[in-house]
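Sample intake sheet
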Amino acid sequence: MKHILLLIFVSGLIAQDFDHPERDHERSEKMEMMMVWKLTDELDLSPEQAEKFFPRLRKHRNELDEVKKMERALAGEMRKKMGEDEDLSGKDVKNTVKKATELRKEVVDLESKFLLGMDDILSPRQLAILGMFKQKMMKNVRGELRDNHGKKGKRGKMNRRGGNKKRRGF
């Protein structure tokens, strides 16, 4: 009985260690700081430009976050209906698809409005860099994740094969 209680207690402590929303918040803040640093560097912003640019960027990101929340809520609603084995009518699915499409269009409109509205702060060259920044940053992040995942995967595969033995053939 003591062993079972000890096991439950230790399991609870371990589970609490994984439940840290403040870590997610810290990670989010670090990502935000990194993005600000990269943007400042990539755009070669002057202090005057940065003073005007970043408040607008924060406002834009908040607007995007609101739309993303609505998208997640819509997807969650559909998943809930599917999980409950509730009969989904074609009309429900079509309405959900229409709403999701409208939300995606809203994201595109917000992005376009933000980018085109920065012409009073940024030069045409800086606008072009800003327009491509998101894709470039996401590509870099995906590459880093792939590299890190590849390193972990290779270690795991090597251990399963029995060390550092090389395979021959297919």
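Comment: The longest helix spans residues 124-161. Residues 155-163 have pLDDT under 50 and may be disordered.
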